[in-house]
Request: fold
Amino acid sequence: MRIGILGTGTLAAGLGEGWARAGHEVAIGGRSPVKAEKLAERLGHGVLAVSPREAVTGRDAVLLAVTWDGVEDMLGLAGASDGVFEGTPLIDPTNAVAHGVGALLTALGESMAGRIAGLAPGAHVVKAFHLFPADQWTGSPGSGRSRVTVAMCGDDAAALRLVGELVRDVGGAPAILGALDRVRQLEEVAGFVIGLAFAGIDPNSAIPHVPSPAATN
Ligand SMILES: NC(=O)c1ccc[n+]([C@@H]2O[C@H](COP(=O)([O-])OP(=O)(O)OC[C@H]3O[C@@H](n4cnc5c(N)ncnc54)[C@H](OP(=O)(O)O)[C@@H]3O)[C@@H](O)[C@H]2O)c1
Reply:
């Protein structure tokens, strides 16, 4: 696939590396062309440094790997209001949470994915990859890293399928929670995990092991 990444930080590097290793064409666009070039060079595997608009144009999927408060600026740089995202799966991994506390910074009932859908007309927004640290995706195949489930929300079935493939390509298992009207739940889970982790508690220990009906049949 032809994948565009908006942002040049830790998550852009982690997923960029994972997808490039899996054989995808990855193009990185940041607000700083120098940082995009440095990251592309560091990742190798033919990863390209491009402008934000080029990172979106003609791509099979785009990852919006910027801090939550940079989303509006970055979508502006990419030309979102010109309709450049029309029909494109747009992956939202952002966490708008208070650092070290985990409380959501979005207004009650609002979600980052919903905000992004409003700012990028025509995009098929899929919330995914927001829960695991970026280095989850950089292990080489067979490195022994445990297989994790990536819960996702989105309104477009084809976009969810495509992002599911991208999850598998970096060693995860995709799971669809529901449409974007459920995405606030996914965003709250990140706040829950971050809040407990910063309090020194393993978030996994706070979740009951509930076998799924499918697993018990
Ligand atoms: N890192 C992780 O393990 C991880 C895991 C799950 C989800 N996430 C989420 O993924 C997103 C990216 O996280 P990260 O760790 O990669 O952050 P990061 O390393 O701090 O990188 C942030 C990126 O956002 C860009 N940015 C910030 N403000 C901007 C603005 N106003 N306009 C344009 N670009 C702007 C930065 O550009 P400059 O470098 O030019 O400032 C940089 O490219 C966040 O929403 C985070 O919550 C991260």
Q: What stands out?
A: The longest strand covers residues 149-154.
